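Record type: monomer structure entry
Structure origin: computed from sequence
Chain ID: A
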Amino acid sequence: MYIDAKACDVLWQAYLSELAADHPHRQAKPDRFGFGDEPALAEELALLVLEGRKCATTSLATEYTAFGEALAGDLSIIVRGDGTPVAIIESTAVTTRPFDEVDDAFAATEGEGDGSLACWREAHIEYFTAVCARLGGQFDAQTPVICRVFRVVWKASRSSA
């Protein structure tokens, strides 16, 4: 997915300009991503973050190793489907567990669909099965997933980005 690196840098600098000189975020190196694997999904989920409905996300642990990516950092810049940044999020909790151990509370925190565990499982089984197939693996109920809870620390509407 395309990410507008220049716009992300502008957003990040606007955020930093509001922080105290000794704020720990000044030393951070945020990652940048859009939720999902296609622009339409990234757009939909970015809007849920802005609305305050989406406060968590789940990824396959294998996605990080297969693509040589670092595990999600403490701070991330979230982009829309067109690659423009919309928010900076900060992780508040990160856990790894088998897929079938994700519970109702976490599914509701993701804020997608109707918020139920059944809806969460249906959408994620489809998505994770496709990702595993692309990576040459198989998905099952014991596949490790990374569950990340976050809070929004900055929205693009607050800056000139």
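Annotation 1: The chain has a mean pLDDT of 91.
Annotation 2: The chain has one domain: 5-158.
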